Amino acid sequence: MTSSFHFRPMVLMASSLALLAGCTSSPRTPAPVEDRTTMGRSSTPTATPAAEAPKPLPGSENAGKPGYYTVQRGDTLTRIGLDNGQGWRDLARWNNLTNPDLIEVGQVLRVSPPGGAVETSGVVVRPIASSGPSSSVTTQDNAGNKEPTKESASKPNANANAQAMQFIWPSQGKLISKFDANNKGIEIAGKKGDPVLAAESGKVAYVGESLRGYGKLILIKHNGYLTAYGHNDKFSVKEDQLVTKGQKIAEMGNTDADAYKLKFEIRDTAGKALNPVTLLPQR
């Protein structure tokens, strides 16, 4: 009885050791990893959808054509108008811009009147009086019949609107900066509050200070020209207002400038800057 009692625990212990030895000697196989990203889907890779082609910008079909301009980084409608001899309101109308502050780089804008029409300022321009004789006189023949007789008639100038412009100096101060390759206008010295006058009759195309280098600026559109008046202190006119030659439009200031002075420019309808001195009376 005694020997049997001691043998059974030893048998149980030996069995346990055998099981432990079997567990440690057999390599452990890892559980399979389940890929849930393809569960319920075909194993065939799907094609990536092609990206949509970007929509062309407004007016892109007119890029490079005469009378059109491609918007560059930093442009504003006012700047584009000044550089092309037009008012920003005209540009907005020609290009159907509901918000003139929203233009995109690469967008192509019409910068000349549609159909080649000549935009007028709404002001009747006085033609230059002819210094020669009238174009025709009337004589009588022996029968008393009146017949027109042509004499040295003056031929009309093809550029009548431009010829009719008779600009005056917009300020009586001293000329301190001349027109050159780097300066698109002239500068006239003065003191704060000096009157700034419209150099010719026209329609106010812009009043504001959104263009760097001009301060408080006024643009006036004439028949064939655009005049610019910069660095003002106070405005005396508003946009779309008709003004007459010699009318006070502002007071001289030093906005965006190092002294009290007037920055004056004349542009043609293509935006080309002209030397104002050649179009102003000598003094």
UniProtKB/TrEMBL annotation:
InterPro entries, A to Z: Cell_wall_metabolism_enzyme, Dup_hybrid_motif, LysM, LysM_dom_sf, M23ase_b-sheet_dom
Name used for this protein in its record: LysM domain-containing protein
Keyword Lyase set for record: no
Native species: Limnohabitans parvus II-B4
Signal in keyword set: yes
Family statement: Belongs to the E.coli NlpD/Haemophilus LppB family.
Gene Ontology MF annotations: metalloendopeptidase activity
Family matches, as PANTHER family: MUREIN HYDROLASE ACTIVATOR NLPD, PEPTIDASE-RELATED
Keywords: Signal
Biased composition (Low complexity): 44-54
Signal peptide boundaries: 1-21
Polar residues bias: start-end ranges: 131-143
GO cellular component: cell division site; cell outer membrane
One Pfam family it belongs to: Peptidase_M23
Region (Disordered): 27-70, 126-157
Occurrences of domain LysM (ranges): 67-111
